[in-house]
Specification:
8 helices, alpha/beta, Rossmann fold, carbohydrate metabolism, 2 domains, binds magnesium ion, 16% strand, globular, binds 2-phosphoglycolic acid
Length: 228
């Protein structure tokens, strides 16, 4: 008997339409029908991947905020301290800059452990202030994330794998950016979509020819039901 391998999937750049934004609706059916756990591992705030799982119709196995929040379906783990990130953004604002998401800021509103800054905002002062608080800034191609260097997606999926009794060596991951490197290092087999940044491409076992969801759908076709 062959079965589908467990999946670890990034969202932005990976499940997105080839135009670069918005979930590609073609991923819904294959993921709902997938015959093994599907973990969504993202830099986005916790409610986003939970909602994505909910609307796809799959169990909520979620790494959010680049590993800062981990949900095993039973327990939520917070692995980083939001106060440090908040102090950085307060200093950034006090210096005359803005996070760039408008007054209600739904990007950060429900964040628990890190802060995201719009890519149109100046990064040099952000990096400087972050460094003075012992935090790093990563650029996912979708946002700058001010975060603790320690937690990452890879550690988050280890927590979930323990809980759902999945062997990480059996997992197949797809991603597009530097925040997926730790995922790629944790799983048995990793793919970077063609639009991936250099860090993700260097860390992946294989770089795909297709971009965004076209790449992910090509991987699903290949690995489903024990395929190579
Ligand atoms: O939140 C981001 O900047 C990127 O999100 P992702 O990890 O799902 O690609
Ligand atoms: Mg991504």
């Amino acid at each position: 008997m062959t079965v589908d391998p467990p999946l670890v999937l990034d969202i932005d750049g990976t499940l997105t339409r080839p135009q670069g934004w918005g979930i590609d609706p073609r991923v819904f059916d294959p993921l709902r029908e997938w015959d093994a756990p599907v973990v969504v591992a993202t830099g986005k705030a916790f409610p986003y991947p939970v909602a994505l799982c909910h609307f796809i119709g799959i169990p909520e196995l979620v790494v959010a905020e680049n590993g800062g929040v981990v949900y095993t379906g039973d327990d939520v783990f917070f692995t980083a301290d939001r106060e440090a990130a908040r102090a950085v953004t307060e200093e950034y604002r006090a210096a005359g800059y803005d996070l760039g998401w408008g007054p209600e800021d739904t990007v950060n509103r429900w964040r628990e452990t890190e802060i995201a800054v719009n890519l149109e905002q100046p990064i040099d002062p952000l990096r400087e202030i972050a460094a003075s608080h012992g935090l790093e800034v990563i650029d996912t191609g979708y946002a700058y994330h001010v975060k603790d260097a320690a937690p990452n997606k890879g550690e988050g999926i280890e927590t979930i794998a323990d809980h759902v009794d999945v062997n990480l060596g059996d997992c197949v991951a797809v991603g597009d950016s530097i925040n997926d490197v730790s995922t790629f290092e944790a799983v048995g087999r990793s793919f970077a979509v063609a639009n991936a940044d250099e860090a993700a491409k260097a860390a992946a076992d294989e770089v795909l020819e297709e971009i965004h969801a076209d790449g992910t759908l090509a991987v699903l076709e290949r690995v489903r039901n024990g395929g190579a």
